[in-house]
């Protein structure tokens, strides 16, 4: 493939960026190992209206009420996969109670996520197993978190670490998601480099 001058300049910039993100390859391997132990929750609102965003959070709560007991066993993925009809029913019942006529779709499968920084932890961009709940047109802002292990609502850093360890995380993986500063900058670097790579070599 022949690169145009503008693409060549951007490629050079990408290489500089990659150099600035030393250790990105190792970090990517850690992300992939981490992803094998996580199941994320992705709730997508019908729209960005205030009412639809409020509905999204109520549906989230209804879904979590069903999933939390399911992920306490030895096979959280299998438990969730077997309970998809029950999870969908909980979401539909929630919408019905709220007087909302939107349809809802529930699925479990791999999904690409951007870097996401939460109050007490961060997750690098990459592919993760995802329990996705789409309300109506699915055109509104998302709510992302982690359904297994249950670390979204850990009250303290100690609670977060304990939940992560119980979910099979190693010490280095706990540090990866909880340490501020350098790791989170590298998360963004990984995301930028991947976006540039996809743009440069798109057919």
What are the salient characteristics of this protein?
two-stranded antiparallel ribbon, 203 residues, alpha+beta, 18% strand, Stage II sporulation protein R, four-stranded mixed β-sheet
Tell me what you see in this structure.
It contains 8 helices and 6 strands; from the N terminus they run H-H-E-H-H-H-E-E-E-E-E-H-H-H. It is an alpha+beta fold and 203 residues long. The strands form 2 sheets. It has a 4-stranded mixed sheet. A hairpin with a 4-residue loop joins strand 3 and strand 4 (122-123). Helix 1 (5-20) runs antiparallel to helix 8 (182-200). The model has no long low-confidence stretch (mean pLDDT 82).
A few lines on this structure:
The protein has 203 residues and is α+β, with helices and mostly antiparallel strands. 53% of the residues lie in helices and 18% in strands. The longest helix is centred in the N-terminal third of the chain and has 21 residues, at 50-70.
